[in-house]
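Give me the 3D structure for BMP family ABC transporter substrate-binding protein.
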Amino acid sequence: MLRNHAGKLAATTAVSAMLMAVAACGGDSGSGGTDTASQGATAASSAPAAADAAKVGLAYDIGGRGDQSFNDAAAAGLEKAKAELKLGETKELEAGAGETGAQKEERLRLLAQSGYNPVIAVGFAYSEAIKKVAAEFPEVKFAIIDDAAQGPNISNLVFAENEGSFLVGAAAALKTKKDHIGFVGGVQVPLIKKFEAGYVRGAQSVKPDIKVDVKYLTQPPDFAGFNDPAKGKTAAQGMYDAGADIVYQAAGGSGGGVFEAAKDAKAWAIGVDSDQALTADASVRSVILTSMLKKVDVAVFDFLKSYVDGTVKAGPTTYDLKAGGVDFSTTGGQVDDIKNKLDEYKQKIIDGEIKVPSE
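Predicted structure for BMP family ABC transporter substrate-binding protein (359 residues):
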C-alpha cells in the first residue's frame, strides 16, 4: 500500500521534537576492527552490553515500513531481534522525500542523544551523516547498511548484490520467450549499478546475444526514484511495449509500479531484496517470476545479537552467496524447472569459477 510521505515527514518531525526533550544517556564503549562474513577476519570486540539496556534506534530510508522491499527487510530483522533477544526500548524513524543531509544527521543525533544504543542507519544515503554523528558519540555503536563509512564505532553491513542479481539474470534468460528483458533501477548510483551489472552478466552467461533494456528513474541528488511507483510503472511499460517479457526492478517502493505494468502486459517481473511474491500487493504477486533475496533482515539481526553478546566489531561484514547473504526465491514455483541450473551457477560463483562484475 502506498504511504503518504508528507504525513510521515510531519510525524518524524513530531518524534524528533519529543526526542529532544529526552535526557541524553550513553551506551557501552569499545573499539572495533574489520570482519567479513566470507573471509572470517576478526578484530577486537566491544565490552559486553547488558541485554536489557539495549535501546535500539533504527533510521529508515525513504519509504520506511511498508515499502514491501528494503526497509521492510530491515524491519523484519528488528522484529526477530525483539522476539528472540532481550532488547529494551526501540525507536524507528524514517526519512522524508527530498530531505537534506543535515536532517539525516539530526535524526541519528537525536537517537544517540536520547540513549539509543545501538543505532542502525538503513541505506547508503546516511553515509556522511553517520560518519559525523558517530564521531560525536564514540560510546554509541552504529551500523549502516549498504555503505562503507568508516569509524571506530561504525559497523558496515554490506552485500554482494551483483552475485544475487547474476542468478535472477540467468533465470530471466532461461525463461524469456523473446530473448529481450529489462532492468529498472531506482536511482543511478554505484550500489544500484551492482544490481544491473550482475543481472546483465547472468543473462549473458545463458544467452550472449540477449537484449537487455536499462532505465533509471532518477539521478542523484534526486532519490525520489526509490519511492515513485508511477515512474516505475511507466518505465516498465515502455520495456514491455518494446518487446521485453521480463523486467527486474531494483527500485525500492517504485517496484510496485513495475509489478503493475507486468500485470497489465501479462508478462513477468522480478522482485528484489525481499521475497516479493510474499510481500508485494496480493494483486500482483502472480507476475513475480522470482526475487533477488538480499537478507537485510539477517544482517540487522546479526548486528543486534552481536551487540547483546558484547561482540560488536567495527568495519565491514559482507553478506555474499558463500555467506548466504544473497540468493534467489522459489515462491510460486515459477523457477522450479530451472532451479538446478541456477544452483549450478550459484555453486560456480561460490567456488570462484565465475567472477561476477560489480559495475
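The longest helix spans residues 190-206. Let me know if you want a second pass.
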